[in-house]
Amino acid sequence: xxxxxxVLPCLTRALLRPFLWRGPRARLASGMALAEQARQLFxxxxxxxxxxxxxxxxxxxxxxxxxxxxxDRSFQLQQNxxxxxxxxxxxxxxxxAEDILGQHLVQGVISVPKGxxxxxxxxxxxxxxxxxxxxxxxxxxxxxxxxxRDALRAALAIRQLAEGLTADDLLLVLIxxxxxxxxxxxxxxxxxxxxxxxxxxxAARGATIQELNTIRKALSQLKGGGLAQAAYPAQVVSLxxxxxxGDPMEVIASGPTVASIHSVQDCLHILNRYGLRAALPRSxxxxxxxxxxxxxxxxxxxxxxxxxxGSNALALAEARQQAEALGYRAVVLSTAxxxxxxxxxxFYELLARVAAARLTLPGAGASVEExxxxxxxxxxxxxxxxxxxxxxxxxxxxxxxVCLLAGGEPTVQxxxxxxxxxNQELALRVGAELGRQPLGPIDVLFLSGGxxxxxxxxEAAGAWVVPELADQAAAEDLxxxxxxxxxxxxxxxxxxxxxxHLIYTGLTGTNVMDAHLLFLRPR
Length: 523
Fold this sequence. Notes:
By secondary structure, this protein is of the alpha/beta class.
């Protein structure tokens, strides 16, 4: 992984430069509008974690000996290699695997988002598509990232392939964000609809992805090590593109090749926390009671090699280099931003104020109250890798524009019936907060975007905002507070200035959580 972190950003820059950098960088930095720079930097962030290059870094094949090397492990291929996969980046991962493995691949089944093949074809991303006569069967499902009957059929086909393997076989498992919704196989008598309803209720009440996945694993045939168990006694190698804070392998796609560390008591604690235990369907109670009394105990996964090949940290490392090439002093704040979107938005607003004061009034700094409140919020969010001190020191030392970068997945507690996603909601809240009082002689822009290109049940990846947002919206008879009360951020941005603040990338074929970009440029 260290090699991937060092080599891939350089490789990505070399591939993208003719397309993204038209002309000398110095001229581009001075002449490009701030919003255009923000959009381009977000595109570069996504480009850094495309599945093809990461797969080629992780896998190598010696054609003469038939030896497949994954990191420091080697596997002998003798018409014994099978492939399964599930997730938003898996189509591209499978295409790269097919290219590397060639005729050694016997059979495969993958579950990918509905419409992704057509989206890749429309945008000319041929490298993300399987060969015309591929040995990999493709199922599309989980529209709007929700489990459905199509995804269930895919999950059952994946289970069937895994259960047919022997001790002489090798199963290559490709996993990325979105994999949980694309691999739904509830334990009977729980139905897909019951499991989906419970997950929706938890999400609407603000449950974290870790809590959601704990419940999903307890009710699933394949999650929480279930797929690895189904494939036993075959050897299993999982290549994982992380979309979870901290890259915990047991959480990504609900850990189908990682033994679950959670108990039934953990599930009940989560259900109690969100007031849902009393309303559980009889089927869910039956499955939890059965698991609690299982004398075999939890699954073990000693026959599995799990490897993380890409993450949010990799994407932000590339974004930092690209921002510096544009003339910014760039710092990665955190790759673990999570928590209530309201608190996260307030944190970014205070960060912008404190940073702006240090940038425009060297030695003066922000008000003591703002500085103290910023650090209080940082402590409240409990971000394990937060580099706040280093970022503020870098701002104070800067002689020009600054770009602060972060990544993660905040949560939205739904209170209205509007249309939006966490990135658009975060951006709108930050924009509203920034407009509360002047920031001084400085241009500020905040962008939040999902690296998968799809923010919630919308076609947008996210949005960008400036401190003037609320005043400009009011001039169009749009009240920001009203839209936020309805969780209707997408409708707001769609109407505001003709949708100019929305970011559209289409499905990107990858997924490493969200990217948050804060730009500060003295006038």
